[in-house]
Design brief:
With 233 residues, the protein is α/β, with parallel strands linked by helices. It contains seven helices and nine strands. Strands 1-2-4-5-6-7-8-9 form an eight-stranded mixed β-barrel, surrounded by four helices. Strand 2 and strand 3 form a beta hairpin. Helix 4 runs parallel beside helix 5. Belongs to the glycosyl hydrolase 25 family. Pfam families: Glyco_hydro_25.
Length: 233
C-alpha cells in the first residue's frame, strides 16, 4: 500500500506534538489557630486566597480557649468560612460528655453556609501515654460516642483530625468512620502520604505547622464550591 506524503506529515504532527499537561486538582487554602496565635491577620489571609479557618474552642470538659470568641469574630468579619475544634482527652471523661461540652462552647453547626461542622482533634497525648491508656477497641468506642452525640445534636458528622501514625497505633487503623466523618490529616511535607483508616482521601490536609497569617497551614481537597457544600451540609 502506498502512503501519501500528506498522510505521513499528519502522522508526524500527532506523534511529535507536546503531550497535554495533566489537570491539577482544585484546592483551597485555609489555616487553623488557637490561643497560641493571639494576633491573626484574617483579612490578609483572605486577601491572599485563604477561604476557611478552623479555630480551637475547647479541651476535655473544663477548658475553653480564651481566644476563641475573638478569633471567631475576626474570621467572620473577614469573610472566611469558619468552624471550631475540640482537643480530645479520652482519659478524663466520655466522648459524649466532651461532645456536649464542645457544642456548648463554640463547637456547634448551623446551615448558614459559612460554618464548618466541628472537628474532633484526636492525637498524641501531650501529658502521658500516647493512647491515653485506652485499648484500640476502647478508643474507637470513645470516638464513636463523641461522633454519635455530635451528630444527634446537629445532624452533622464532625470532622476528625489525626495523623496516620496515631490513628494506626491507637485505633488499630479503624475504618469505622470513613463514610461519615471527613478526615483532616496532619502530615508536614510535600505530599499527603498514607491515608489511614479506610478513608479514600483526605478532606483537609494540614501540610505545615506555620502559615504566614497565623497558625498552621491547611489545604482543602477540592474546589471552593465543594468547601461551601461541606459548610452548608
Amino acid at each position: 500500500m502506498k502512503i501519501s506524503t500528506a498522510l505521513i506529515l499528519v502522522a508526524l504532527k500527532f506523534t511529535t506534538a507536546t503531550p497535554a499537561p495533566l489537570e491539577r486538582r482544585a484546592t483551597v487554602q485555609g489555616f487553623d489557630i488557637s490561643h497560641y496565635q493571639p494576633t491573626v491577620n484574617f483579612q490578609g489571609a483572605y486577601n491572599s486566597g485563604a477561604r476557611f479557618v478552623i479555630i480551637k474552642a475547647t479541651e476535655g470538659t473544663t477548658y475553653i480557649d480564651p481566644s476563641f470568641s475573638s478569633h471567631y469574630t475576626g474570621a467572620t468579619n473577614a469573610g472566611l468560612i469558619r468552624g471550631g475544634y475540640h482537643f480530645a482527652h479520652p482519659d478524663t471523661s466520655t466522648g459524649a460528655a466532651q461532645a456536649t461540652y464542645f457544642l456548648a462552647h463554640g463547637g456547634g453547626w448551623s446551615g448558614d453556609g459559612i460554618t464548618l461542622p466541628g472537628m474532633l482533634d484526636i492525637e498524641y497525648n501531650p501529658n502521658g501515654a500516647t493512647c491515653y491508656g485506652l485499648s484500640t477497641s476502647a478508643m474507637v468506642a470513645w470516638i464513636q460516642s463523641f461522633v454519635n452525640t455530635y451528630h444527634t445534636k446537629t445532624t452533622r458528622y464532625p470532622m476528625i483530625y489525626s495523623t496516620n501514625d496515631w490513628w494506626s497505633t491507637c485505633t488499630g487503623n479503624s475504618a469505622a468512620f470513613d463514610t461519615t466523618c471527613p478526615l483532616v490529616l496532619a502530615r508536614y511535607g510535600s505530599t499527603v502520604g498514607t491515608i489511614p483508616g479506610g478513608w479514600p482521601y483526605q478532606t483537609i490536609w494540614q501540610n505545615a505547622d506555620t502559615y504566614t497569617y497565623g497558625g498552621d497551614s491547611d489545604i482543602f481537597n477540592g474546589a471552593l464550591s465543594s468547601l461551601q457544600k461541606l459548610a452548608s451540609g
